[in-house]
Amino acid sequence: MSRPLVTTNDTTDAAHPVVLGPLPMRTYSRRQALAAVERNFAPGPVVPVAFVNAHTMLMAMKSEAYAETLSRFLLLNDGIGLDIANLLLNGHAFPENLNGTDFVPDLLASTSKPLSIYLLGARPDVVARVASVIEREHPRHRVVGFRDGYFRKDETPAVIAAINAVSPDLLLVAMGNPLQEFFIAEHLGALDCRVAMGVGALFDFMAERVPRAPRFMRKAGMEWVFRFMTEPRRLGHRYTVEIAEFLGRVAALKVGQWLHGRTPPIATIGFDRRADTAAEPRFGDRTGADPHVGR
Fold first, then answer.
1. 155 Cβ partners below 8 Å, 6+ apart?
2. Which GO terms fall under molecular function for this chain's record (predicted)?
3. Which residue in 42, 116, 148, 186 has the fewest CB atoms around it within 10 Å?
């Protein structure tokens, strides 16, 4: 079953809309974000969800194609980097840190609807372990299928067919940024699911292949510090060079605000379109209304 994405400019949700660089976002509390996702488990077009941290935002600043892709998603803030950017550019931090590694378990624990779930991504042993963890810790929900993320391009139709054969309420895609968002966006019209969510390293965390930061660090948006300490060789460039570049680009946007009295053109960070034209978010929805708005 194919469901095309329906876009909207409705901004009547209680969460305040903001623009960060090239991306339209909302200042959700955790409760509001959970409710926004849960409302979209009703029948209708697929709603794509992505978690945006400093690494994701930097990629969007450097790639117009990625920014355009993310602008079609329901975007949730992840980490202190987004707080810093929002504080500098819009005068306030986000109400809460909505990192996906905590948000997805919270969603499974809080939703009133028993969900069918399909898992896509990670290594075969890891995704199988995650299926067992979800069924043990959240027995109200059913994992109706899973497969690893190591498949050839010519195998993609079979992967989509396997997902559609079970029509899951929730599709979790753990392929890393930006691949998972491009995958979801490219196949959005062909997927038969309710919500398709890019979850990055979630499966590795849930399978306990990678340790989590202490809760106080996660709540403060500082999990990146813990990850840097535990995986310095793999993540060193991201959490040093990339963080510096991200903060530099945010500072440049702030200077543009001072000079122009508004968010400067995205051309200052490599685009030809203006950041302030992205203020109206576009998301998939069931009825032609914003998926953030209660029905």
1. none
2. hexosyltransferase activity
3. 186
**What does the pLDDT average to over 201-216?**
87
**Domain ranges for the chain:** 16-151+158-278
Question: What distances in angstroms separate CA 69 from CA 8, 133, 185, 190, one per listed residue?
Answer: 15, 31, 7, 16
DSSP letter for 20, please.
E
The amino acid occupying position 111 is T
pLDDT at 61: 97
Task: List % helix, strand, coil for the chain (3-state, nearest 5).
Answer: 50, 15, 40
What tens digit of pLDDT does each residue of 1-54 get? Answer: 434 333 333 333 568 899 999 999 999 999 999 999 999 999 999 999 999 999
The per-residue DSSP string of 157-194 comes to HHHHHHHHHH--SEEEEES-TTHHHHHHHHTTTT---S
Q: Is the distance from CB of 145 to CB of 118 less than 8 angstroms? A: yes
Nearest CA to 283 out of 93, 121, 69, 137 is that of 69
| pLDDT value of position 263 | 53
Helix (H, G, I), strand (E, B) or coil at 261: coil
Pairing of strands 116-121, 142-147: parallel
Question: Does residue 133 sit in helix, strand or coil?
Answer: helix
